[in-house]
Design brief:
Helix content is 26%, strand content 47%. A hairpin with a 2-residue loop joins strand 4 and strand 5. With 135 residues, it is an alpha+beta fold. It is globular and about 40 Å long.
Length: 135
């Protein structure tokens, strides 16, 4: 795996593991965000649309965190990151309880060193299935 890709992703996850999803300096201006499953699946294009989507998702959770468990290079431009996600859901102030999932994020990294596409999976098994991989 290229050292540049590893450092880029480690920087992203350093923030996300603390629950800080505010930075988008790692994203290409025309990034495509795909949320493949989970409570709000969909597809968005561009930094503003990605930020709006993340804001909507984050507003439904308290203390949402995404911690990397493993980085898997699929080819020179794609890295699959296996994650452990945690947080507490909320709906109209009602506590929904603790969330702990084993998800995955597929990053497409362009020649510019920026992420051009991010596919987020709440369910790791769905990621493996979509990509034709085994655990």
């Amino acid at each position: 795996m290229s050292q540049e890709n590893v450092e880029l992703l480690r920087g992203i996850y350093a923030d996300w593991a603390r629950g800080d999803f505010s930075s988008n300096t790692w994203a290409d201006s025309e990034i495509e965000l795909v949320v493949a499953d989970g409570p709000s699946p969909g597809r968005w294009k561009g930094i503003a649309a990605m930020a709006e989507s993340w804001s909507e998702v984050l507003s439904a959770w308290e203390e949402l965190r995404a911690e990397p468990e493993e980085y898997r290079e699929l080819d020179h431009a794609r890295v699959l990151v296996l994650t452990r996600n945690s947080g507490r859901g909320k709906a109209s102030g009602f506590e929904l309880g603790e969330l702990q999932t084993r998800g995955a994020n597929l990053f497409h990294i362009g020649d510019s060193g920026k992420v051009t596409r991010l596919v987020a999976y709440w369910d790791r098994e769905r990621a493996f299935s979509d990509l034709g991989l085994s655990e």
